[in-house]
Amino acid sequence: MAINQNNISEREWFESCPMGLIALNEQDYICGVNPALEAVSGLSAAHFLNQNQASLPSSIHRPLLGNEELIHLHGSGLECWLQRETREMQSADGKKITLLYFQNVTEKYQLQQQNNRLKQQLEELSTTDALTGVTNRRALIQMLDAQITRSRRYQNPLSLAVTEILPQNSEAISDKLILTVSNYLRDRLRWADVLGRWEESRFMLMLPETSAEAAHTLIENINNGVTDLASTEEEQPPAFQLRFGLAEWCKGLDTARFTQQAENALDTASTSMAS
């Protein structure tokens, strides 16, 4: 310890401080390291004394002398997060001493990260379908509300397509088939389009900035690939058909009537078969 070798109380405080401490002299070389810093860094004081940031032997520990207040030390079995605070003082001989305080916030940081992950998972669960990972019905309605408001204000085209899975031979619709279809649809939509699971065997395709004519072309392209779908699967899915219904937004349509219009279009829609 090099703060004031003649002041026993000051030296004892430095050595017994529960927070990690590094003392820097006027040339920013390390002149003191307390046991708490040794413990959290995994190195003895000998590795730090008379070193600066550039010369510190372990690159893992160089961030201790950097400019960041939240420091992540990791490597060679070390993994911790430290919160740093800097203070300046004078030693008994009038020389400037810079003290770096390090509080170990690893547990707090990890808990915060875990909370953030849980929050993200909850947010995803509230907006995505559990089976397919696409937008769920509730979130899709909210997004459609916003798009209708935008189209109403700026007169931008907006189309909505609903597609239904129709299994052949009255077979039950399996989770595997639903996943196969959802992945197929998602891969063939454009970046601005939104795919949502509407019901058990129905998906809704929200197509912003898309007229009915352009939406019809998109659906045709999707239909053209359905017959090749089975050959791309490692395990051939059950034979099924896709049926589409299409609606274009116009003035006076709210979300409920717009989605109902798309669903009504299913009644007269043709099918495309994968078998």
* Helix content estimate: 25-40%
Q: How many runs of DSSP E, i.e. beta strands?
A: 10
Number of helices: 8
> In terms of structural class, how would the helical and strand content be classed?
alpha+beta
Instruction: Give the biggest sheet.
Output: 5 strands, antiparallel
Return Rg in Å: 32 Å
| Secondary-structure element pattern, one letter each | HEEHEEEHHEHEEHHEHE
The CATH topology of the largest domain comes to Alpha-Beta Plaits
Question: CA-to-CA gap between the ends?
Answer: 79 Å
What's the overall average pLDDT, rounded?
Answer: 87
Record keyword descriptors for this entry.
Alpha-Beta Plaits, alpha+beta, Beta-Lactamase, 275 residues, single chain, 27% strand, disordered N terminus
